[in-house]
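Quick one - inputs below.
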Amino acid sequence: MINLPETNKKRVLIIGGGFAGLKLMRELEHSDFQVTLIDKNNYHQFQPLIYQVASAGLEPSAIAFSFRKLLRGKHHMLFRMAELRGIYPEQNMIQTSIGKAHYDYLVLAAGTVTNFYGNRDVEATAIPMKNVSDAMGLRNALLSNFERAMTCATAEERRELLNIVIVGGGATGVEIAGALAEMKRFILPSDYPELRCNEMQIYLIEGQDRLLGGMDKRSSAEAERSLTRMGVKVILGEQVKDYSNHAVTLADGSTIPTQSFIWVCGVKATPTNLPANLIGRGGRIQVDAFNRVQGMDNIFCIGDQCLMSADPAYPGGHPQLAQVAIQQARQLAANLKQLSQGKEQAMKPFRYSNHGVMATIGRNRAVAEVGKFKWHGWAAWVTWLTVHLMFILGVRNKMLVFFNWLWNYLTYDRSIRLILYARKATVVREREEREAKVHLPDVAQA
Amino acid sequence: MINLPETNKKRVLIIGGGFAGLKLMRELEHSDFQVTLIDKNNYHQFQPLIYQVASAGLEPSAIAFSFRKLLRGKHHMLFRMAELRGIYPEQNMIQTSIGKAHYDYLVLAAGTVTNFYGNRDVEATAIPMKNVSDAMGLRNALLSNFERAMTCATAEERRELLNIVIVGGGATGVEIAGALAEMKRFILPSDYPELRCNEMQIYLIEGQDRLLGGMDKRSSAEAERSLTRMGVKVILGEQVKDYSNHAVTLADGSTIPTQSFIWVCGVKATPTNLPANLIGRGGRIQVDAFNRVQGMDNIFCIGDQCLMSADPAYPGGHPQLAQVAIQQARQLAANLKQLSQGKEQAMKPFRYSNHGVMATIGRNRAVAEVGKFKWHGWAAWVTWLTVHLMFILGVRNKMLVFFNWLWNYLTYDRSIRLILYARKATVVREREEREAKVHLPDVAQA
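Output:
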């Protein structure tokens, strides 16, 4: 039972509290809706810095922000921790892991999940890096592989444990490759004096012929040059075919032994039970110029989960970036206010305005593009730091991130090298098992 | 294979990197031994602040410190992440989860584990708070219980989800009860405006007739008075009989419904395969005045895991406190240096010198005793803060803890209200399963 308080306001349900969902919440703060945010976590995560959690530079809590804290003191703004299980447009109803809820307007903003392109071996064993929980898992796995490398029986196994293979040369792949190359250079020799660090090799594999496919070719070349100089083996134009027996097999038949197999080469939209004819490229839900799901009156989709072909500048859909999500949320908030007052004609179509893209490679190294300006090196790196610090929620988190960055920069350290798992209490495990049984079929009859 | 480098130095193996093991490591730094620390975690944890991790006031990384970082640049000081499985004194050998190791001197410093006094219902469901992993699990469980309380179907279930029962009125129980009472007062009303917080009740149950049994009666009375004023229901002289169907049953037959059942009412020494005649009260290993395990030449035990009746002031053994552990480690380091030079007569028996005990209850409230001086309130609280800040390892951790304390004090906030689990990578899970199969029987034949 999702237990929303009775109200005579119109109900907006937002599924997902990423950049899109959160921005929408904030824009609807002084509106005349009852707004409920539904997310499977109780915190917003600052996606662009997840790779720094994985590489032991930041604590999860520095880039995660409690939804309840954000909603403090805001009337008619509610939060429910639950997972969406099904959408039933005829009944204006959704089913979640904790029960049903009715809506006047439903906004899907559930983002994307890692895409394994149907390869089950890879899905079962690769380490994704899509959220904070993945990132902590990756950190734990890398550190525990290093520990085992100290004591394993054969040179072959030691190579497997020390090699790191990163699949996917987008911003995430480039950033984690850079961070791990610095860890290899500055941390491993002093932490593991018994290991010969040249036994460790970091591979970055990309299917296309360049890194950072979404950026300018000069930025791609700069990223490749920097990473190579930092000791990363960049392999371009090569597909990963399989992963088995602790080895990655490439399309050309060659293999790389590794137990640290990081998969950041693609995402697909978080799946729903909406009919297949509404789904476009990358599993994304097709929306019109107002982010309205095609053929639906009161169901919208924003951010990475949607595909809009109505923006003249982006006929193939927008890139899946935080900026697009934030701008769509802002536009949708304005449109929902019009719509709820019966002024459907006053709704404005969405137009994306590109404020630029950036990726960081390492200490003093980044690439940035804003309009026709493209720069790299120290200046780009400082821009990157400043922009990210500005966009992190909350004074406490900004201070924590700044403190950690300063500390890590001055000491060349990554302080959070702890292999740490939370013990799951029986009462929580049992509840999760119960809630996992809330399946679609049970609902359709409801 | 534990893979220790060849050496002509004498080998000291230390099992456990708590206060005792870590102090011993540091004291042996400039000695003529090859010293290897073996711990199942890759970090030292600062036990006295674990309750603050559980109550969302501190991040795990603020009170955990990487062993490898501590051992940086120190020759002949090694670390292995492994669990002890068996001790074979005739062969001067131990078996661990990752293989065998030989020693010249073996020092057990593995501390204690939670004692469930044989009650399997309690063991299966109670939430312990012995280490960082437990504390994160407790934090996750509490927050997730609050989330569910928003949406559960019945008032009965809501009461179960909101009630918190803490069993054990020692320092840990008092400290967590105080921290949760403050959370109830300052955090819950604003985070969960839909809940009526008076539905939430915190119980602290103690079998003896007073809290803080190890301290002076006036301190006990002060703790009880403060907690009661803060809204905690303190129940003294009452035993918990069982926990089933989300309810605690007391010895008098009454029940308290709760899904947050925290068990901090006792510890027992970490078990080993040493013969039963060497084991005393609380599962502790009996040692002589030099911390030598009775009847053994070169096996020692220090800290909470040992029981020494040779100290004239403590014929029943020492209290299980950090101070005892640290002092024993210091004495043992000196004695080992003498012993290894054949000067067994020069070894000095251990005498515990009590520097005082403290417990914090909440904002501006603590109790402290040093010798004949006993004080409480603000002054005791400041003493507590200062002493703990001094004893935390590392400048970065001191700064982080100080920043978090200051922030929490000024804002009345507990910022880390995140329900957060690390995803366990397949490769790590498989390795753990393999290592769990390293059993004692396999070894005895070796």
